[in-house]
Amino acid sequence: MEMLSIIFSHILYSSLISSIIIVLLLIVKKCLPSYLSGRVYHVMWLLVLLRLMVPFEIESPYSLTSILPEIYPLFNYSHEYMSNQADDYFRTGNLNSNEFQELDGEYYDKEKTRDYSLWNLGLLSIVWLTGVTSIALFASIMLIKFKRRSKEFERDYNPQITELMQQCCVRLGLKKDIPLYLDSYFRGPCIAGIFSPSIYLPKDICSQIHHHQLEHVLLHELAHYKRKDLIYNSCAAMAAILHWFNPLVWLAIREMRYDREIATDAYVMETLGESAVIPYGNTLLKLAGIFSNRSTPSILAGFNETNKQMERRITMIKMFRKGSYKLSALAILSFIIIGALAFTIANGSTLKGDGNSMFNENIKDMMVVIDPGHGGNDWGGTYPFDTSDPESIEIKEKDFNLEISLLLSDLLKKSGIKVVMTRQDDRTVELEKRVEFANSCKAALLVSIHNDMHPDSAINGTKTQYYYSGNEAGYGITGEKAAQIIQSNLVEKLGTIDLGISNARFKILEQVNMPAVLTQVAYITNKSDREKLMTREFRVKTAQAIYDGIIEVLNEMDATDK
């Protein structure tokens, strides 16, 4: 179930990014229907097809994910929170089994309901798999029927047609022997078979068209094979199955088929020369009259299309000039730009567990307690500030604290650091319970994540607090030193105003045995800080900065022990 959700989240994300590109291409086609050639559009559709099929991205500062900061994280991290957080929050180091069970029962319910959105993702993944299975089964049945029916097709051995077929193969540089079949099953000329291709024609076509028109038909079908259109057809079918829920994908595949025919026309005319443009166009018109409104099955690459698309093909044929099949520098540049947008992910959306921190393997034996401030009925700071109307509250500090803490936990665990959290969801945990839990874990460091507020909305910046209780002896570092290190990393990486470190007599700092710090990342009552906090990129950077600071603190502890 969990693996299915992970797969579906990648499919969903790929479909979303592809949809943006599809809409952009459709707008370009609508505004500039004849400005770019069919081949250019077809290659662009192939990039979309590749985006739909490939599940990975390359990190870049320029990406479509940069305009989706609040959507991408669900796809990228949801499965990790589902699978890892519930099991790993209580890695309690030296706690014995009785102590662990007591803490586990006191603070968390093992049967707790998962986050609603993630539960929905799991449910949707089942619906998606059902659709994929159903459509794949239907497509397989249709393919099997076609294979069985094809055994009854009559192969054409007419010497004149065989000679014409050989001449067409020579013109296109094809050495493969491609058989030709005639049967009333087909409503128009088409070609099928990736590894063993065959051309199929309606049984009475030879009596309805002239010899040179038959040459055009054969060249067109052979050009599909030469251009690898049959492979693209199969990939398009797979994409349609995987993304069956997205109507834009079906629309893109239809448009890709239309542009494929125009590109194939251009390829044939490039082979025949400009003198054949008018005769080739007449062949299209002739076939349009014979096979009016007869579509070709999607598993085949055919010569004929709908009347509307036939009109566009005729228009593009009129505009054809020798050499126009070749891709221009502008077209190649367009492909590079689309590819860069489609296959990259904004570097502000990813987490780097090893970052630039100097990582020491010895610190993996140490444990870190992460304390997301507030939670449940305790909202912490709010915006608007000091309001008596709960309905008017737009922002609650507890939500930012939890998300940053989850991201930080994920980073530390990816590096192999033992991590426990005082809360992993939106629940109320009393300060006494947090302190008791942290001390029971015998951790090396506690980091409490907070954001601040103030009646004066002009106050903004970052500060880190500590309390020297004398309990830190033997840890190799004081809370003050740990605060200096983490504060330095936060200010450097976030670019916020440095409000420094200060001694603060908070319970979570005063009553724990290990070095402890409390970060106040930003002021939610300040417009500038608040706008930063509301961006995914800033919250990810915050987690990364605290992570780097923690690694530095743990390294110093290890060095002091030696």
TrEMBL record:
Keyword terms of this UniProt record: Hydrolase, Membrane, Transmembrane, Transmembrane helix
Bilayer-spanning residue ranges: 6-28, 40-58, 118-144, 324-346
Segments forming a coiled coil: none
Every MurNAc-LAA domain range: 435-551
UniProt KW Acyltransferase keyword: no
GO biological process: peptidoglycan catabolic process
Extent of the signal sequence: none
Protein name: Cell wall hydrolase/autolysin
Pfam families cross-referenced by the UniProt entry: Amidase_3 (PF01520), Peptidase_M56 (PF05569)
CDD domains the record matches: M56_BlaR1_MecR1_like (cd07341), MurNAc-LAA (cd02696)
Molecular functions per Gene Ontology: N-acetylmuramoyl-L-alanine amidase activity
InterPro entries according to UniProt: Beta-lactam_resp_regulator (IPR052173), MurNAc-LAA_cat (IPR002508), Peptidase_M56 (IPR008756)
